[in-house]
Structure formats: structure tokens, C-alpha cells
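FW: tagging you since you asked about this chain on Friday. Here's the raw sequence from the shared folder, copied in full. Didn't touch anything.
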Amino acid sequence: MAGLALLIFSSLSILSHSKKPLKLIVYAYSTQVELLSQGIFPDFEKYWESMHGRELTIEGVFGPSLTLAGEIILGAPADVAILSDEQHVNYLKLGKMVRENNQPIVVSMTPMVIVTRPGNPAGINDFADLAMPGLRLIHPDPRSSGAGAWAILAEYGCSASDTESEIDAANTLAAIWDNVILLAPSARASLMLFELGAGDAYVTYEQDARLTLARHVALSIVIPPCTVIAEPVAVIVDKNVT
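HL: got it, structure written out here
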């Protein structure tokens, strides 16, 4: 998260020219709630105040990544956007919210994994196993969630790597999606449904799966032999800070 701290410094250097109370609004994808609100934000506020003698408030708004990008384009007052997919930053550029030469910073790297019920009773070992008949899947919706897009990339890409056939990979992906019983708007919403007892498995970021396990939620984590590494990014929303 060193890149994120640098980005926050950069945005504050612009905002601090104003005489108004210093407030930074950060829009971030859903699984970053605890990491930011309970860790990085309060720590950074204390650091800034000790170094500059000026009070700082960082307000976090959390939700599905693509949904947040759409809200920013429609006028939401985000100073910094932390999005789960760089493509969502490209939408901000198309909406004239971010300059074309403003390159987003990768803030973390996390593999996509499969979360199952405790002990992995279905015997899931890889993404192709999500196509087994009768399995009930919860899936983040790729139309709103970066996790959903990363999950599809892992499901299709690993199958294509294993079979060396795009047709077989497409058939496997279709079979996986035949097992989807619920589409959740975000990775965090998938977790909430799973905690309520829905489904046998879902795909998410390893980072969030391990944070959930640390809260003593009953689950098992399957790290497939083939996966993809998600690379969430952060960017200053130029139109709102300049």
C-alpha cells in the first residue's frame, strides 16, 4: 500500500491550498473496508496532523468497483478512487474525470481463490471443478464487480491453459455459470450471502478470504494450481481535486 500513501500525499498537496477544513474523500472497492477504515485512514490522519499541525478527515465510500466508477462519472465527489480493475479507471478517463496521462498506481496484488464450506466437502481443487454437476455457486457480478471480472478470467484462462482449447475452455466456463445460483454485486456481497448459508462455494480475492478466515468465519480456502493475480489500482480523480 506504499503506492496508495504516495497517491494520498499527492492529492493532499493539491487540496491543502484551500483554506477549508482538510477532507479527503476516497471511493474504494468493497473488500477494502476494514483495511482502510480501521487501519490506513486513521493512521494516516494521525500522521498528517502530527507532521502538518492541521486536522485531516479521510472519508471512505465503499462498493462494487464499476458501480463506483459510474457514480464518480455522474458527479460523486471522490478525490481518490481505488478500483479493482484498471479498466474501470479507463472509464473515468472516458468520462473526463481523470486525465489521459494520469497513470493509476497498483496498490496490491492478490490471487483469485475459491472459498468453500469448512473441510471442502465438495472436493474442489481448481476452477474447472466449479463445473461439477449439482454444485451451487455464488458469483460476484462482472457487470458491477472487478472481482467478478477477475474470476471469469481465472475460470476461462486456467481452463484454456489446461486443455489448450478455447472451445473446451468456453464450454467449461458455461458449465461453471450453469451452477451459479446467485449473482452478488460485489465480492463482499458474495461473502455476506455465503455467511448467510447460500451456496457451496464462491470465488474471491485471497486477501479478503484470509481476512474473513481471521474473523473465525467457518470456511476453507482452496488455492488452485492455476489462477490469476488481481491488481487493484488507485488514481487521483483530477476533475475533483484540480
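FW: The domain at 2-108+231-241 is CATH 3.40.190.10 (D-Maltodextrin-Binding Protein; domain 2).
HL: agreed, and The first strand starts at residue 22 and ends at 29.
FW: great, closing this out.
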